[in-house]
What we know:
Blueprint: H1 26-48, E1 75-81, H2 86-99, H3 105-111, E2 117-122, H4 133-142, H5 163-169, E3 173-181, H6 185-189, H7 200-210, E4 214-218, H8 234-240, E5 243-246, E6 260-264, H9 273-278, H10 280-285, H11 289-300, E7 307-313, H12 315-321, H13 325-346, E8 352-358, E9 361-362, E10 366-367, H14 377-382, H15 391-396, H16 404-415, H17 421-431, H18 445-457, E11 459-460, E12 466-467, E13 471-476, E14 486-488, H19 491-499
Parallel strand pairs: 1-7, 1-8, 2-14, 3-4, 3-7, 4-6, 5-6
Antiparallel strand pairs: 2-13, 8-13, 9-12, 10-11
The structure holds zinc ion (ZN).
Zinc ion binds at residues 83, 133, 317, 321, 362, 466.
Amino acid sequence: MAFTDHSDPHPSSRPASPDSTSGESEASRGVDRRAFLKRTALSSAALSMGLWGGDGATAAASVRPRADVQGEARNIIFLVVDGMSQGTLTMTDQLLQRHHDRTSHWVDLYREQAYDAKAFMDMTPLNSLVTGSAAAASSWGCGHRINNTMLNMDPDENPYRTICQIVRDAGKATGLVSTARITHATPAGFGINMPQRWMEDDIAAQYLEREYDLLMGGGARHFTAEGRDDNQDLTTAFADAGYRVLRSRSDLGEVASAEKALGLFFDSHLPYEIDRRRIDRLQRTVPSLAEMTEAALGRLNQHEEGFLLHVEGGRVDHGAHSNDTAGLLYDQVAFDETIATVLNFVADRDDTLLVVTTDHGNANPGLNAIGDRYEDSPAMFDRIADFRRSNEWIFRELDEDSAVDEIQERVAFACNLDISTGQASTLKQAMQGDFEAVYQPRSSPSAVLSAIQANYTAVNWTGSMHTSDYVPLVAMGPGSDTIGSFVRNTELFDLMVDTAGVRAHAEG
Length: 508
Ligand SMILES: [Zn+2]
């Protein structure tokens, strides 16, 4: 069996004594290390004999008992940036250092060792080595590995209870915030059961039934009569159910006094941060992720029994899918600012479990070595600081009939790059569907534009889809000291349930 579901116990990897979570002696660590080295030697011998196989995907997960953290957390804040590869985190820190006089708050947690736990996490879903956002969020949301594109259901469409339902039934407040449509896979993975993540009209309706306290992000089209396939006006239904419905950045002030709130700040996903910051109309009407998060914390923290808040930087994933370097990096910056907002909230408290992570890698961008002794790379990378728009903005006004010089002008305005006539012609070919790259996924217009840009920025990509990378995780607050250094995705569900002391509500 290649993948073991969470419900199968691993007695051998769950030490019976809670003592093993703390106060390890030097001597016992020495024994552990020797045992580890021995096992490594044995397994490499087995590998050379072709005997490797079985449960390798999960056997290494370090599950530890959670009984000692029972009910220690009043609040849980779960921050996810969607689709962040290692290169995204690295380049964002480098961009901030070179052009914004600061370092990444996320990377600073490492620099300052300001965490209670740091780990790699294995995000494997039930049916593949590469996860989608729905299965990834569901692994945290219900504690089970499930098939890609489903939301908190087993392959036969039997629902699992979600963390939002569990926490809600225990009397805590629940909030979901995203820069993607709020009906998108990641927020839905914390509180929705659906056979297909794409059933977003139904997801919006299920949110109404489940009465979560706060929903903020994009995706108005799945709530309005004009946008929904059934032409039902869900915003009125939400208002009738006691929700304050917010449609613009200036409405955010109302969240604090609202009993419940539904914030829908764009028809689909919120615009990329680089466009939001530079286009006046968007700046006025669309809040940043940090602003939504601050408003959410202000409201949820009034709740006597505490809260669960999930926040997603949703469009880093989209920037990666479309190889949109500036779209990607500035949305990562916006997520990083949100980390600062939340660190500010938890700074003086010891009752809040904070998790910061991503759900999978995506297209694995990186700054490549260029030039003699690689000395061209920094100046090439610096060109990204002169980008004024996302690639999404470039394509919005272009189509297969666009003239070559029109393509050049639009790229020049958005990126401050004078691409050649030959490069613009190739992009036109790609838009006409007449370009074929040796690696087929690199044939799309967005991949071709990014490959052209790579000649100027030295940032390039492996493809345009998710990757199987183990993801970084940092955590702090009650319960986080029980997180091992290699974590199975489903373990975070148990950590949340036990640390919040809501296990009694987990079985329905
Ligand atoms: Zn994705």
